[in-house]
Amino acid sequence: MAGLTGDVDSSAPVGVCEIMKAMVLGIGAVGSVTAGILANSNEYDKVVLADIDFEKAKKAEKKISNDKVTAKKVDASDVDGMVLAFEGIDLVMNGVIPRFNYKIMDACVQAKANYADMAWDVALDDTPAGEVIQKPPVWHSLKKDAAFKEAGLAGMIGLGCDPGLSNIFARMAADRMDKVKEILVRDGDNGYVEGYDFAPLWSPETLIEEVLMPATYYAEGAYRKLPPFSGKEKFSFPDPVGDLNIYNVDHEEQETLPTFIGEVLGKGCDYCDFKIALGDEYVDAIKMLGKLGLDSPEKINVKGVKVAPRDVVAAVLPDPSTIGDKAKGDCAIGSAVKGEKDGKDVGYFIWTQLNHEDTYKRYGHSATAYSVGVPLAIAGILFAQGKITQKGVFPPEMLDPEPFVEMLPKFGMNCFEKKL
Amino acid sequence: MAGLTGDVDSSAPVGVCEIMKAMVLGIGAVGSVTAGILANSNEYDKVVLADIDFEKAKKAEKKISNDKVTAKKVDASDVDGMVLAFEGIDLVMNGVIPRFNYKIMDACVQAKANYADMAWDVALDDTPAGEVIQKPPVWHSLKKDAAFKEAGLAGMIGLGCDPGLSNIFARMAADRMDKVKEILVRDGDNGYVEGYDFAPLWSPETLIEEVLMPATYYAEGAYRKLPPFSGKEKFSFPDPVGDLNIYNVDHEEQETLPTFIGEVLGKGCDYCDFKIALGDEYVDAIKMLGKLGLDSPEKINVKGVKVAPRDVVAAVLPDPSTIGDKAKGDCAIGSAVKGEKDGKDVGYFIWTQLNHEDTYKRYGHSATAYSVGVPLAIAGILFAQGKITQKGVFPPEMLDPEPFVEMLPKFGMNCFEKKL
After folding, report:
1. Residue B313: its chain A contacts at CB < 8 A?
2. Number of CB pairs < 8 Å for A and B?
3. ipTM of this predicted structure
């Protein structure tokens, strides 16, 4: 096991233009992290904090308290409005919920702004369990590749922690192999919040949705679906995370790694899946919510008011943005890649890990938001430094992993690895 | 085991006045059953179907289609309005939710109308588990005893199936003993609804509330509270109900039987509890709802609308009034009483049982509603026949069990017993 602790000198920006301007669109938990880093970087001269809730953007502006930042009201559902708002912006960093990605991407193409996001809507596919997926949801982003290329723009998708770092770790391992056999992405968190029986540290709506959907995996040359809660097994995450039960869950990584590492980079990939650790109490609760129909995002009539049951579940749970300071425990996210090098079987598990309490104390953000916002910010910095030169729409495994991983320690993040 | 199949001749009513007028207030699932029976009895000349929802009352009027019935809009929260509406009514049968009982009772006293209900609000006490209850919720009804006596009126409380028949069965057993040691009320139902994973046959709000509250029991001379889900054990209900897991649950019977059979009737009672059968999936679901806070009746803000989580749970579940025709299986409700007779230990389990499918086919009501509405109607008939002469407020164990039980078969219900 070796920690990569190298640092980079980012004092001499090599911008793609003289004055670098970024917009962080959506100043939620993740957007705040990214905006804070960019505003304190040497690479950006202006950082626009954009949100549909102008007061929220103003609050973030005050908190960052830096003459590079300005708040702006931007509606991510209004393409024409965004085209105007993006004028003169070099890079739009999308921090809103994935539903708006495609409109934001369209506006970027029209406004000639580069683009980065940290997730996409994996729920856009409804292939039932047991069947082959015709077009994984990432296709909605990838089909804009030609337009981005034509406009000479980069469209960086899925650049958070997972997806994001997990893809980059898979690429690091693949780079050391002649042939890749399997890529297993693993996300484990033993975090808990004192005083709460049940307190997800990530959006409860997303957790419920992701976990109850059939899960994408890749095998026998095709993207396929497994039933929810498939593939339960114990996985030994690095200390202090430890042994946790993991399950197949729908996520972004397994929609791109087999195609991009396997075909585009030509390494091959026989199998790929994503599994996340879920405590027994979460599994029981989410199964029950699904059974009762309380997971539904469709509004129903309840004594004269219209409300979506899933929103009610989210409303009774503590708001993840308010409990980051109370979370304890550790999380680890990594990719276990097996393949061949010089005719021999080789394998690596490459991961990052964070302590919840420590992260909050040091950075004032939850580890969950921080670990997503940092890679997005690093992408922004590398882009401004001219180290990301690709055009078109591409996932994180298409980036050069080295400068990316080298910059993690600057923001208190790390990259570990062990042989498998 | 012996079925009491005697019938009664109710063709010659011995009314307490020349023209007998009943009002059924609240034409829900139970009220409809009671109203239908009274309207087709020889004992009543007029039956007023009263509901805050006049259309609902009109619909029931059309369905019963009998010149004795008339629909009326009555608001159970408006005492003055009820006093006017109750004028000339001999007996008000309360079919609304228990929250309104005390206002209805007050209006009855003012309007000189006799009163009967089928439940009271056991949630009115918040004694924590492990402690002695100072005043069980039934006190809210019993404290009106003097006013009812002074007005020369009967106030019959808890006269459904359980409470109601269960209290009467306990009294039947107690009547055969010199001394009562314990009274155990047992409610078992193996019913299910095809096509639903989770479909309570009784109000989901009530089920959730009753089961998550500390449960009243009586021991060592005092009414006490146990934690929710206490006392799990397997109980052998009569065939075809069979073995089911039962739990202590808050209910009405154990609030009155020790006092009325034990002290008022002088039989003594060392121990009394109520246990209901709960399927593992109900226990898991209800525990989870409680853990998540989805059992709360308090309104919360959900994306701009105010809604009580418990109402949302009820709204996602099938409406019990719409699934009565789909229910299969059987239910049994009885009292197991142990004591002494002539110096020897004796014990009886006396119960009633119904088949869901058969009850719906024969009567067009769910077994759950039917088994509650029939005893309430029998109380009305016996009252009109002059067979209930007590004044004041009293629970079902203060009625003479014999005429009551004899009338059950007339309405397709039964009473079985076995020695313990």
Report:
1. 292, 294
2. 80
3. 0.72
